[in-house]
Amino acid sequence: MIRSLLTKKSSIQKKYFVLKYLIMFSVLFFPHSNAFCQEIENFDLPSIIRGGKLYDNWLAFVPKEKQHLISKVRKSHPSYPKNSKQNGITTWRCKECHGWDYKGVSGAYKTGSHYTGIIGIDKYTGRKTDEVMQILRDSTHKISGDMISQENAKSLAAFVIAGQVEMDDYFKPGTSKIDGNANRGKPFFQTLCSSCHGLDGRLINFSVKINEYEFLGSIGKKNVWELIHKIRNGQPDEKMISLRALTLQQQKDIVAYIQTLPDKP
Ligand code: HEC
Ligand code: HEC
After folding, report:
1. Which CATH number fits domain 167-258: 3.30.420, 1.10.760, 1.20.120, 2.40.50?
2. Segment 84-139, tens digit of pLDDT
3. Residue from 155, 147, 96, 166 nearest 129 by CA
4. pLDDT tens sequence across 18-67
5. 130: which residues sit within 8 A by CB, 6+ positions away?
6. What is the pLDDT of residue 70?
7. By alpha-carbon position, which residue is closest to atom 42 of ligand 2?
8. What residue owns the CA closest to ligand 2's atom 24?
9. pLDDT score for 33
10. Mind giving me the DSSP string for 15-55?
């Protein structure tokens, strides 16, 4: 009896011994393993979403009292190529140089009126906040603290590091067809979008030109990458929701449904 108790104890001790070494081993090994499996910093969702909206149009976030300090944005960004087609304020938006699909010249902006030849930001997924913040203030970007505050720069970094998505995953492999089901997307659209955009997506006309029209259906057909970015992050300066909480498939289904909506008045 005593003997068996003793051996039992020693086997527990043995297990404890092994456990102790396992813990010590993992504590010793963990800091090194980070270098291999590039751990992404932790960011909270609201910060990533805010960053997504800043990427879309940070100018919408400049407080009124600071707006007079950034009058130089009325001229085109000094790093925006002279022979490209856009000009003025819009050339300061991240998306104008790096694209709605984050791939720059390797993505949708490889041709057309938004072509600049500039690289994407997709390689910066998983990088460090400081690195991205330095880029914003560098001699290529020339973005001062009056333009994007330190707090907003952190959100923007959160988006660049942890908020991008591989847009190719929204399409059927090797095609430009959305990998979604419009019938499944319909109830999502009718509950999440239609109160503002109308049941057929024509309640809001996005065109800023008189007698021209741009509805959700138009964006779905002409610029699906913009639509995906807005679904995930919302619209700067508006109460529009972010749908990052939905699965990739649900997001794809919504896009598929929006592509069936009318694009003419
Ligand atoms: C006028 C064009 C322009 C705008 C606007 C712009 N960038 Fe850039 N960005 C560049 C260029 C050009 C590079 C290439 C690196 C260089 O030459 O410094 C670059 C590089 C980067 C990189 C590094 C990519 C890599 O793989 O090396 C990141 C990250 C980045 N930009 C983020 C942003 C963010 C965030 C914004 C919005 C605040 C922004 N950029 C706005 C032109 C632009
Ligand atoms: C609370 C109201 C609201 C809801 C809900 C909403 N939106 Fe919006 N959305 C807006 C407003 C306001 C705008 C800006 C319109 C403008 O700039 O003229 C906008 C803009 C957009 C744009 C950008 C159009 C452009 O070219 O600037 C897209 C795309 C879009 N919404 C898609 C959606 C989708 C998809 C849903 C549902 C998942 C949705 N929205 C839900 C209010 C809303």
Report:
1. 1.10.760
2. 999 999 999 999 999 999 999 999 999 999 999 999 999 999 999 999 999 999 99
3. 155
4. 556 555 555 444 444 444 455 778 899 999 999 999 999 999 999 988 88
5. none
6. 84
7. 240
8. 206
9. 40
10. HHHHHHHHHHHHHHHHHHHHHHS-PPPP--HHHHHHHHHHH
Domain boundaries, the chain: 45-162, 167-258
Look at residue 201 in the predicted model and tell me its pLDDT: 98
CA of 238, closest atom in ligand 2? 12
- Both tokens assigned to 222: 């002409």
- Measure 203 CA to ligand 1 centroid, in angstroms: 35
Nearest ligand (C-alpha, residue 52) = 1
Residue nearest to atom 27 of ligand 2 (CA): 206
CA-closest candidate to residue 218, choices 204, 232, 238: 204
Indicate the SS3 state at residue 221.
helix
Q: How far is the CA of 217 from the centre of ligand 2 (A)?
A: 12
Please name the residues in contact with 238: beta carbons below 8 A apart, sequence gap of 6 or more: none
> Position 129: which residue type?
T
Q: Tokens for 76? A: 């085109």
Decide whether any atom of ligand 1 lies within 6 Å of the 87 Cβ. Answer: no
pTM attached to this predicted model: 0.89
